Amino acid sequence: MLGESHDLLHEFPDLEAKISALRSDSAEFAQMMDDYDTLDARVRDLEELGTPVADETIEELKKKRLVLKDKLYAILRS
User: Fold this and answer.
1) Rounded to 10 degrees, what is the CA torsion of 35, 20, 74, 39?
2) 27: exposed, middle or buried (C-beta count within 10 Å: 0-12, 13-18, 19+)?
3) Angle, vertex CA 42, rays to CA 31 and CA 24, nearest 5
4) Strand, coil or helix: 1
5) Exposure string (b/e) for 28-63, b if CB count within 10 Å is 16 or more?
6) Is the pLDDT at 3 greater than 60, yes or no?
7) Which residue ranges make up each domain of the chain?
8) pTM confidence score
9) Where does residue 71 rank: exposed (0-12), middle (13-18), buried (19+ CB within 10 A)?
């Protein structure tokens, strides 16, 4: 859905405590989350504002966001 939030707390509400703990205890995890949030905001902005952008560009951003989310989820589940 266009403009839908994909932040980790929205995606994984049952892991909120672990997300919070890892974000404060792991600089690497915190940086990955910051990168993920930046990508998510960029995709939402492009979708919501209707900024002219090639389909390939937005799809590439979405793929990067998904790969990063998968990495973050793997850390959360370990």
Assistant:
1) -20
2) exposed
3) 20
4) coil
5) ebeebbeebeebbeebbebbeeeeeeeeeeeeebbe
6) no
7) 8-77
8) 0.85
9) middle
Nearest to 2 by CA among 60, 64, 62, 56: 62
pLDDT tens column, 20-67 = 999 999 999 999 999 999 999 999 888 888 777 888 998 999 999 999
Is 37:73 a contact under the CB 8 Å cutoff? Answer: no
What is the distance between the alpha carbons of residues 75 and 61, in angstroms, rounded to a whole number?
21
User: Could you tell me the end-to-end alpha-carbon distance of the chain, in angstroms, rounded to an integer?
Assistant: 30
Q: Which helix (H) or strand (E) holds 41?
A: helix 27-49
